[in-house]
Write a structure and sequence with these properties.
- By secondary structure, the chain is an alpha/beta fold.
- The protein folds into 2 domains: 5-192, P-loop containing nucleotide triphosphate hydrolases (Rossmann fold, 3-Layer(aba) Sandwich); 203-388, 3-Layer(aba) Sandwich (NADH Oxidase), CATH 3.40.109.
- The protein has 14 helices and 11 strands.
- It has helices at 16-24, 42-55, 68-74, 87-96, 101-117, 138-157, 180-188, 195-207, 221-232, 251-269, 274-282, 317-335, 348-354, 380-383, and strands spanning 5-10, 31-35, 59-63, 81-85, 121-125, 160-165, 168-173, 243-248, 293-300, 339-343, 361-370.
- Helix 3 (68-74) runs parallel beside helix 5 (101-117), helix 4 crosses helix 6 (138-157) and helix 9 (221-232) runs antiparallel to helix 12 (317-335).
- The structure holds flavin mononucleotide.
- Residues 209-210, 212, 285-286, 342-345, 379, 381 line the site of flavin mononucleotide.
């Protein structure tokens, strides 16, 4: 069966691209973006780059200023989700190449035929150019006419036409065909975040880094409040909320922790030999004194008494819960522009003594929190050649340990896209 064809039309800045991208969010198929724009000047180059960043890395961008039908032909028969942005620039590119009206319209017909043959869902963006005054210049008039004629052809041949009016999609032609994205959207859309919100979340996840380099800039207490409240909203076994957050700013206390690290780090270095030990010793593994704030996240193993719902079989679930709080903290801090570095090379007994922590409380994470000049683009241990990210596909088994997939297989658009 062929896919669904959708035309999204409207004035400039009416929300066409945003709406088209929204339609694409729920498809499982590969997403192909056909860009007809050519980066002819600096401003255009910047615009194109901005749009590419907004789309996200799951999109494959194909630049084709003249022959988008060829892209559809070359693509093969596997269904994809294809978005062409935009018809007006395509027409303009052909006009600039001195193609005649007839030659241009032939290309338009050919493109429409390819769209209708394709198994992919195809969204095409165009502009409504004809609503303003009649241009004085004859070439502008004939371009406006070709654009109007093309829009009419597309609108009559495509399954669905959406007109964007001040950011609001108005469906002016519908069809009974449901495209792949819609089918999935029906199931999910009530609960799913908007593309912008999703992008924000994924950005925090992928751009979170363990940081050891800080600058001497104080941390805004309100920001820290938001970050700690995010931590406090982590899941916890039996809703136990076993955490406390010891916020440390006193240089004398930091000094003590620094000494603790130094001793523990010297011991840790002895575990490695030769070149590996040399590399270990060259690594910066803490920012205790440089970071404006240190936070010791603890777990009260006795909170809510001996019987906690859900903790009967796995006693350590209180510690797991505290780790969930730490991860929330780490992500919220990244969104707030705050760097966080986890220091585990410490004697816990010494830490408890230095921070007056009672016996039944276990320190889980010692975190350095502050501002940084720049976030590392990759894990520092990766850059230093200590370890590499494992391929995620290799970590997934089906139905049993080391089981391979049968009917259902998790898909990754590009497993290496986030470094
Ligand atoms: C439980 C835990 C303990 C860690 N301890 C240290 C540490 O003592 N020193 C350090 O430099 N990094 C420490 N890290 C950071 C890891 O090295 C880092 O997360 C890993 O290299 C991946 O880098 P990324 O966090 O930037 O993605 C710790 C991380 C975790 C989760």
């Amino acid at each position: 069966m062929s896919g669904k064809t959708i035309l999204v039309t409207g004035g400039s800045r009416s929300g066409k691209s945003r709406h088209a991208l929204q339609l694409a969010t729920n498809t499982n198929n590969p997403k192909i973006f056909i860009a007809t724009a050519e980066p002819l000047d600096e401003e255009m180059t910047e615009r194109i780059q901005k749009h590419q960043d907004e789309r996200g890395k799951e999109w494959i961008t194909i630049e084709e200023p003249i022959d988008p039908a060829k892209v559809l032909k070359d693509k093969g028969t596997n269904p994809s989700f294809i978005l062409l942005d935009c018809i007006t620039l395509w027409l303009s590119n052909m006009t600039m190449k001195d193609m005649t009206r007839q030659a241009i319209l032939e290309r338009v017909h050919e493109f429409i035929a390819e769209c209708k043959n394709s198994k992919s869902d195809i969204i095409v963006i165009t502009n409504e150019l004809g609503s303003g005054i009649v241009p004085l210049d004859s070439s502008a008039r004939s371009f406006r006419d070709i654009a109007g004629e093309t829009n009419q052809l597309l609108a009559s041949e495509f399954d669905e036409v959406i007109s964007m009016v001040s950011g609001i999609p108005v469906t002016i032609k519908t069809s009974s065909k449901t495209h792949d994205a819609e089918k999935i959207e029906d199931k999910n859309s009530k609960h799913e975040f908007s593309p912008e919100k999703k992008q924000g979340l994924y950005e925090a996840i992928y751009k979170r880094r363990d940081m050891r380099h800080f600058i001497s800039k104080p941390v805004d207490p309100e920001k820290l409040g938001r970050v700690l409240d995010a931590a406090h909203h982590a899941g916890s076994v039996g809703y136990m909320q076993p955490w406390n957050f010891l916020v440390i700013t006193d240089p004398e206390v930091k000094n003590k922790i620094s000494l603790n690290f130094k001793t523990a780090n010297e011991e840790a270095a002895q575990k490695f030999n030769g070149e590996q030990q040399k590399l270990y010793n060259s690594l910066k593994l803490e920012g205790i004194q440089d970071a404006a704030v240190n936070i010791c996240v603890t777990c009260d193993r006795t909170r809510f008494g001996p019987n906690v719902l859900g903790r009967n079989t796995v006693f350590e679930t209180d510690l797991f819960s505290t780790c969930c709080a730490v991860q929330n903290l780490w992500l919220a801090a990244r969104a707030e522009g705050l760097a966080v570095g986890w220091v585990s090379i410490l004697s816990n007994d010494q830490l408890k003594e230095d921070l007056d922590i009672p016996d039944h409380i276990q320190p889980v994470a010692y975190l350095c929190v502050g501002h940084t000049e720049s976030f590392y683009s990759k894990p520092m241990l990766e850059t230093a050649g200590w370890a590499q990210r494992l391929p995620v596909e290799k970590l997934i088994y089906y139905n049993k340990w080391q089981g391979t997939s049968t009917d259902f297989k998790v898909q990754f658009s590009d497993p290496n896209k986030n470094g």
